[in-house]
């Protein structure tokens, strides 16, 4: 089989029941759909056996997170392309073909992904929208201080898809909610960095792949609809903790090789990386104070815990970063300050970015 489309499930039985039929229909005989399960306790595997007996399942013995779960599941599969896809994604026919066609016609591309539109639940029914969805919209970037944003999503604001991002584009990252990668690249990169557990691990994978000389591209001819927040609520302090912690891991790991690939010496790249990290810690701590003063003490505690865990994890073994200097400038690492720009420009931030990124 050329393509393995793999859902990593953890207690999302109802999403599997709702969205798996369309995924199976869309893939037909052209791809194998696999459900890997992270020791769910909601009856997911029993439901799969009863309602989807023909679908291959990979039961894991524990919840190893997004990173550990996919690393273990994909190690058991043989395909040319892997597609990581969330259980809360709705697809229509012909979403997969543009991704495969892009990979076939662009051998320099190692990772690609579709546009993400929002999916909402109203009165027990799911409704597709034409608004970009938070998790990945039309391809992701990082600003000069490592804050992620997307074409079509900045901070918590999303915009309508009016065809403004209908051309394929090389970006820094595409969302792990729906991501295609060459299996050879997956293996060469050592899969996902297990330290991340969940959140921003796909940014790390895409960034490392670029440093290895591969392109990361969003292919807007493919569109999927994402509900979002199915496993972990957007308001969860634990999710906040993961994001703060993993953003620091991401920068500490990849900034210096990127600066070196751009021509800086190893010593200068390391100094610049440390300067960026100090600034990020300052911003994080200011945010922590704001959380505390506005009564969000659980959020303030999450930021503090994120910093503690980052220091612990930074010394642990990580998935490899390719040697610096073997590729040119990393696409999608944009020298702007996205937060003040977004606050000052409001909804005008999208037009500003269209002009800046064109």
What would your notes on this structure say?
The strands form three sheets. Strands 1, 2, 3, 4, 5, 6, 7, 12, 13 and 14 form a ten-stranded mixed beta sheet that branches. Strands 8-9 form a two-stranded antiparallel sheet. The model has no long low-confidence stretch (mean pLDDT 93). The chain has two domains: 3-226, Spore Coat Polysaccharide Biosynthesis Protein SpsA, Chain A; 237-327. The protein has 358 residues and is of the alpha/beta class. The chain has helices spanning 13-27, 44-51, 65-74, 97-105, 183-188, 201-211, 237-261, 266-293, 297-313, 338-345, 349-357; strands at residues 3-9, 32-37, 56-59, 81-85, 89-90, 109-122, 125-132, 140-142, 148-150, 153-154, 157-158, 169-170, 178-182, 215-226. Helix 7 runs antiparallel to helix 8 (266-293).
The helix/strand class is alpha/beta
Total beta strands: 14
Number of helices: 11
**Overall mean confidence score, pLDDT:** 93
CATH class of the largest domain equals Alpha Beta
> What portion of the residues fall into strands of 2 or more residues?
15-25%
């Amino acid at each position: 089989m050329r393509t393995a489309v793999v859902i990593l499930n953890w207690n999302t039985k109802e999403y599997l029941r709702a969205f798996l039929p369309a995924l199976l229909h869309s893939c037909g005989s052209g791809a194998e759909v696999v459900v890997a399960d992270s020791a769910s306790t909601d009856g997911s595997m029993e439901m799969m056996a009863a309602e989807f007996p023909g679908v291959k399942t990979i039961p894991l013995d524990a919840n190893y997170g997004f990173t550990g779960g996919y690393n273990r599941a994909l190690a058991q599969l043989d395909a040319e392309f892997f597609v990581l896809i969330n259980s809360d994604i709705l697809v229509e026919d012909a979403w997969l073909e543009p991704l495969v066609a892009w990979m076939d016609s662009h051998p320099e591309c190692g990772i690609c992904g579709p546009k993400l539109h929002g999916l909402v639940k109203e009165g027990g029914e799911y409704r597709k929208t034409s608004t970009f969805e938070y998790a990945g919209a039309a391809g992701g970037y990082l600003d000069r201080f490592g804050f992620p944003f997307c074409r079509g999503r900045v901070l918590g604001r999303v915009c309508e898809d009016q065809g403004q991002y209908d051309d394929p584009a090389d970006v820094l990252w595409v969302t792990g909610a729906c991501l295609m990668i060459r299996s050879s690249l997956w293996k060469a990169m050592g899969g996902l960095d297990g330290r991340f557990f969940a959140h921003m691990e796909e940014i790390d994978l895409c960034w490392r792949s670029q440093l290895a000389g591969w392109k990361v591209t969003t292919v807007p001819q493919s569109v999927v609809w994402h509900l979002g927040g199915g496993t972990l609520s957007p308001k969860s302090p634990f999710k906040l903790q993961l994001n703060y912690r993993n953003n620091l891991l991401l920068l500490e790991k990849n900034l210096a090789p990127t600066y070196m690939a751009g021509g800086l010496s190893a010593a200068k790249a390391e100094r610049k990386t440390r300067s960026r990290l100090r600034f990020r810690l300052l911003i994080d701590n200011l945010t922590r104070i704001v959380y505390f003063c506005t009564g969000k003490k659980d959020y303030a505690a999450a930021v503090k815990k994120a910093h503690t865990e980052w220091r612990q994890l930074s010394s642990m073994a990580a998935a490899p970063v390719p040697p610096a200097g073997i590729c040119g400038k990393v696409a999608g690492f944009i020298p702007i300050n996205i937060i003040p720009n977004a606050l000052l420009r409001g909804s005008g931030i999208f037009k500003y970015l269209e002009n800046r990124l064109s």
